[in-house]
């Protein structure tokens, strides 16, 4: 029997401390709900759960990003729906103007409404935005930087790079130059009196009219006939010059005089026709253009296409010949982060939806052939906007699928994380009961062990 070292008490105290530590850990798990509260609890599990929590948070944020992207696309599509309605109204007005019973004053009234519709389309294109980010002005489309061109557009299949070409010859107007100036005309004699028909628009030339009055009459008719009239030729000679408003092979001027004397006064044949030419281009195959790339021209408008939906279009500056070096960049398109990791994004491109990029900015039904030409341009504009809206719909459907996938993945990863880090409450409660009882038992045993040295007093009695 020893009193300096109470071995039973030491052994019992060690077990009591062990049970109390186990009980404390069990109570911590029960109160926190986590199986892993400290790195020492499960080092590998702590590392895995930490990465999984970051991944789950990223997936949840990506899902909200995708929903925000859907809202952006719905905003853009809603605006384009109204633009579509206005273009369809313009088509209806062009059909009305093309009817033979529609007079010139009626056409001018129709044109007033068309001009208002064009202004509203441009307003929507420049003002539609989401969170201050403009959607329809072309700022979130592929950017093309180049000189001597405008209205440049690239399809989503066009990759970033340097695309070079040379404009060998510029598009030209249809052109007719008389050999006389308006000062040489008049007063109009009885033999010269008659009519001049300019692309179907009639100028009435009456006896006694001065040269100035004749010039005014043909200028008014030319405006309706889609022709510009000027007083000087290409080399500065003082003559009356007729130039078509449009460029290219579709641009034509036909001038007819009702009598030979009137034609002679202008120094022209009784009937004269001129047709413009389209631009001619050479693609630089050493640049990013492939050997399969081809081009078409419509006046100054140049469109380059290739396999797989590749398309670049632009309007060359009037009269320019020479090199055009286009730098196509990745700047502009909107990247939606729809994944938890780097590089997991979706690129959205929305082309410019203003009247210039749809080539309806110059629609004019008051001219002789303006209504028919307007129908053609408006038809192309409808195709343009329908293609853009179809792409928006495809983007939206993809984002909706992304949201479903992200939510499903987040749910599954949360379940996996729960199996690693969450406490099993039933098991922990069982452990708590066990260690609670053991602690009480150890406390009682320690009390008994502490009484053993008291027995030594009996030996001294």
What's the assembly state of these chains? single chain
Shape: rod-shaped
DSSP helix count?
Answer: 8
Order of helices and strands: HHHEEEEEEEEHEEEHEEEEEEEEHHH
The count of β-strands is 19
Largest sheet: 4 strands, antiparallel
Specify the structural class.
Answer: alpha+beta
Global Rg: 42 Å
Strand arrangement, largest sheet?
3-17-5-13
Low-confidence stretches: none
Features:
461 residues, alpha+beta, four-stranded antiparallel β-sheet, 46% helix, 22% strand
Could you give a short description of this structure?
Helix content is about 45%, strand content about 20%.
Report on the architecture of this protein.
There is one protein chain. By secondary structure, the protein is α+β, with helices and mostly antiparallel strands. 46% of the residues lie in helices and 22% in strands. The strands form 6 sheets. The chain has a 4-stranded antiparallel beta sheet, with no helix packed on it. A hairpin with a 2-residue loop joins β1 and β2. α1 packs antiparallel against α7 and α2 packs antiparallel against α6. The longest helix has 56 residues. The protein is rod-shaped, with a radius of gyration of 42 Å. The two termini are 16 Å apart. 30% of the residues are buried. The model has no long low-confidence stretch (mean pLDDT 91).
């Amino acid at each position: 029997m020893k009193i300096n070292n109470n071995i039973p008490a030491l052994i019992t105290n060690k077990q009591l401390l062990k049970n109390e530590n186990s009980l404390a850990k069990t109570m911590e798990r029960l109160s926190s709900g986590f199986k892993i509260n400290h790195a020492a609890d499960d080092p590998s599990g702590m590392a895995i759960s930490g990465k999984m929590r970051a991944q789950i948070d990223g997936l949840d944020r990506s899902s909200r990003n995708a929903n925000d992207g859907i809202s952006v696309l719905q905003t853009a599509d809603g605006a384009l729906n109204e633009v579509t309605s206005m273009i369809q109204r313009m088509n209806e007005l062009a059909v009305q103007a093309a009817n033979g019973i529609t007079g010139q004053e009626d056409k001018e009234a129709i044109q007033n409404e068309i001009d208002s519709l064009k202004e509203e389309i441009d307003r929507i294109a420049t003002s539609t935005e989401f969170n201050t980010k403009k959607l329809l002005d072309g700022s979130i489309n592929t950017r093309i930087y180049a000189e001597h061109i405008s209205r440049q557009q690239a399809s989503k299949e066009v990759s970033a790079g340097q695309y070079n070409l040379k404009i060998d010859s510029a598009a030209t107007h249809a052109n007719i130059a008389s050999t006389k100036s308006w000062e040489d005309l008049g007063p109009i004699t009885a033999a010269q009196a008659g009519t001049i028909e300019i692309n179907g628009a009639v100028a009435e030339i009456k006896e006694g009219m001065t040269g100035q009055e004749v010039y005014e009459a043909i200028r008014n008719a030319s405006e309706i006939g889609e022709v510009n009239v000027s007083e000087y030729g290409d080399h500065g000679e003082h003559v009356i010059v007729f130039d078509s408003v449009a460029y290219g092979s579709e641009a034509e001027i036909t001038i007819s005089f009702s009598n030979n004397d009137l034609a002679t006064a202008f120094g022209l044949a009784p009937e004269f026709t001129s047709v413009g030419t389209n631009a001619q281009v050479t693609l630089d195959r050493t640049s990013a253009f492939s050997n399969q790339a081809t081009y078409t021209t419509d006046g100054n408008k140049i469109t380059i296409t290739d396999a797989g939906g590749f398309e670049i279009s632009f309007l060359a500056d009037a009269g320019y010949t020479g090199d055009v070096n286009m730098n196509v960049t990745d700047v502009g398109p909107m990247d939606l982060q729809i994944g938890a990791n780097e590089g997991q994004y979706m690129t959205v491109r929305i082309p410019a939806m203003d009247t210039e990029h749809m080539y309806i900015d110059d629609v004019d039904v008051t001219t002789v052939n303006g209504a028919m030409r307007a129908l053609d341009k408006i038809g192309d504009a409808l195709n343009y906007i329908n293609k853009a809206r179809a792409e928006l719909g495809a983007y939206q459907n993809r984002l909706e699928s992304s949201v479903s996938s992200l939510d499903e993945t987040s749910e599954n990863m949360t379940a996996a994380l729960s199996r690693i880090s969450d406490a099993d409450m039933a098991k922990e409660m069982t452990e708590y009961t066990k260690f609670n009882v053991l602690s009480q038992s150890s406390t009682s045993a320690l009390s008994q062990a502490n009484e053993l040295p008291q027995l030594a007093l009996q030996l001294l009695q």
